Every structure is written in structure tokens, then in C-alpha cells.
Amino acid sequence: MFSKAKKITCKAHDKYDQAEALIKEMSAGRDEQFFKTAMKNFDVLLQCILYRAAVADKKYARAEKNFLLDLTDYEDYPVLVTARSFKFRPKAREQFLEELAETADRASTAFVSAFAKVDADNKERDFLAELENCVQEIFFCFASVDGDDLLSNDAGLDEELSVLASSTGMYFSGKWELLVAAFEGAGTNTNL
């Protein structure tokens, strides 16, 4: 019988595998390097989103670090690999979180730019919704891996977690939808 933590981790890995398969499908017709680069960007973006959730409660538990590093297969955000904990002074913590947000923004721009055209050309599937679902499911698994309940008695923390849970929208949806609209409006099949 699996422990609760093991079940959570297994579910997150299943969702990661689904996202990987989706990205592989969207990479059809491109070389293997294209797929690997897309997965590296996805991994960094996912780790940035999850790390922000990890420190929302001002703690970075060993279980959270292990989850972050074990989940992704293609790339690890360097600081997350080497850090034992992040007990920053408030100003240093904010500076690091800003750097993390900038990294996530760059990774999402590269990732979205590669796949918005695929989504614009495919009217049968909503790749964005499928990918967002995978990331949000991973997020909710991650939010409980350290034994804390997702929802706490801290209204500020609950609000921050809610914002983070929807951060796939911040990193994917807005950019993705703008590019899809641009491609649809242009009516072109130009490769990115």
C-alpha cells in the first residue's frame, strides 16, 4: 500500500508524463532537439511556478525540494538544485522571486512561441487547456506534498496560493491566445 505522499507524487508524475506526451504530439514534424528544448523550457517554467508555491508559506521543505527535482526530466533550475533551504531575509527573498518570475517569463515566451502556431492550426483540440490542466494538477499535488493542507487558516497565504494555482494563465494563456489570434488573423502557415 502506498503512503499518501507516494500517491501524490505518482499522480504528479502521471500528469507530467501526460504533459510530456502532449508536448511530443505538438512537436510532431520537428526534430528531436526541438522537442528537448521545449521540454527544458517547460521544466524550468514548471519549477519556477512550483517553487513560488513552496515559499508562499515562507518555508521550503525537503519534501518540496525533492518533489521539484524528481519531477522534471529535462532541465533543473540551477539555484533550486543547489539550495538546501531558502531562508532569505525579506528583501533577498523578494529579489530572488523577481528573478524567478523573469526566468519563468522567458521560458514561457520560448515555449508558447513554439506551440501557439500548432494550436492555431488545430481546431479539433485545445492543447492549451490540456496543458494547463496538467500543470494545475501537478500544482495541487505539490501544494500538499509537505504534509500541509492546501488551504490554511491564513487568508493571505490562501489568496497567494490561489493566484499561483492560476499562474499557468499568467505564463501560458495570455501569450498563447495572443499568438493564436495573430496566426489565425494572418491566415498563414509560416513555421516559427
Protein topology:
Elements: H1 4-26, H2 32-54, H3 62-71, H4 78-82, H5 90-121, H6 127-143, H7 155-165, H8 167-186
Helix pairs in contact: 1-6, 2-3, 2-5, 2-6, 2-7, 5-8, 6-8
In short:
With 192 residues, the protein is an all-alpha fold. It has eight helices and no strands. The model is unreliable at 150-158 and 188-192 (pLDDT under 50).
Question: Care to describe what's here?
Answer:
The chain contains eight helices and no strands. With 192 residues, the chain is mainly alpha-helical. The protein has one domain. It starts with a helix and ends in a 6-residue tail after the last helix.
By DSSP (H or I, 4+ residues per run), the number of helices equals 8
**Uncertain residue ranges:** 150-158, 188-192
The CA-CA distance between the termini, in Å, is 47 Å
Radius of gyration, CA atoms, in whole angstroms: 17 Å
Number of folding domains?
Answer: 1
In round numbers, the mean pLDDT is 75
Kindly estimate the percentage of residues that lie in beta strands according to DSSP.
under 5%
